[in-house]
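Exercise 7. Predict the joint structure of the components listed below.
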Amino acid sequence: MSNATEQNNNLKDLVLRKIESGELSMKPKYYFVLKVSLLIFIAFVTFMLSALLVSYILFSLREGGQFFLIGFGTRGLYEFFMVFPWLLLGLDILLLLFLDWLLKSFRFGYNSPIIYLFSGSLLLITVLGSLINFTSFHDNMMRRAEGKNLPFAGGLYDGLRKSHDGLFLGTIVAIEGNEFMITNSDNDPRFSETIKVIATINADIQNRFSLGDKVFIAGDVVNGAIHAYGVHAVTP
Amino acid sequence: MNSPSTYTDEQLAKLVQEGDGEQFGTLMERYQQKLFRYGRKFLASEDNIEDVVQDVFIKTYQNIQSFDVSQRFSPWIYRIAHNTYVNALKKSSNGPLYIFDFDTLISHTVVEDPIEKEREQKEIKEIVDKGLGEIEPKYREMLVLYYIEDLSYKEISDILRVPIGTVGVRIMRAKEILKETYKKMGIEIK
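Solution:
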């Protein structure tokens, strides 16, 4: 008997003996079904979390008025990049990488080049995130948070509709040329009941806005007044 | 009635799944030499090869219920072998075995040419038999699976879980490295 055949028989006998004696046994089918189900479930949860995070980022930028900064020239663009929630975006990218790693367990996942898989999943969560934003999901969540009925995620919605550094929210109560007054809706201690706004750009305030309009203002506080480089009406 | 030797691998695997442990012996007979050869070339060592191959069969038996009998058995068992050999290599080498592979990042257009494969197969088989120890494991494995084990790009893609394009690129690169390596050793390859 050749060495190779002898080696084959030895190994075969050894493994078969282990099977017969019960020392070696198969893992049951349900173990694998559970494993795959768990994998699919975790992938689905990660996907949904990632899409929700994208929708929250979009919602918070819209509600906080930061989105309007993009239309306020170079300064606005710079401020937009400064206030953008990069940490949340980073967290979302981490979730996406984790999702892609999970998807690599499936044939369509490992057959796709990493760039395609990443771009595809990014596109999908962005589309889904935008669609969620069209629904009243975040509005409802915010309402619940404001009514202190959202114990776990309430903090996420706190202060979204308030003025931020360099970005102010208020209702126009008086207009005179390129200057106007807004209410101090957030009771900002730097101002009295109303705040004077001076548009430093040719914003055509008188023709574009009316009394009672709710506006976002991007600008700096100088001598108790806001020197605005951008004004945008808020859709009620 | 058919004897087990006429059954396909997938039919045998189904019988094993149904509890006929004896049929696992027939599957072992079919794959033992292949897995020894693959292991020797990939690990580039004879050390503990018997233990490692035994480990492959043990894992195959333990996990056989996860095998989908509508698929081919061969890439499935090679996948288990690949994972087991990679673990064995990790144990025996100090450095990281597979760090991030840029070949998997983007798409590559490759065409598998059976005529070219046939032309190169005999020659590369002979060269590979002389030893592949000088070549990086990820390229060594490609040459073994494609030229020695005669697997297709698609099967290799399923075993290594990389895109088919990456398989083609790695085989092309592996051939170049093989030529370079043997040129340095004074062996000319066409």
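Discussion. The CA atoms of residues 82 and 90 of chain A lie 15 Å apart.
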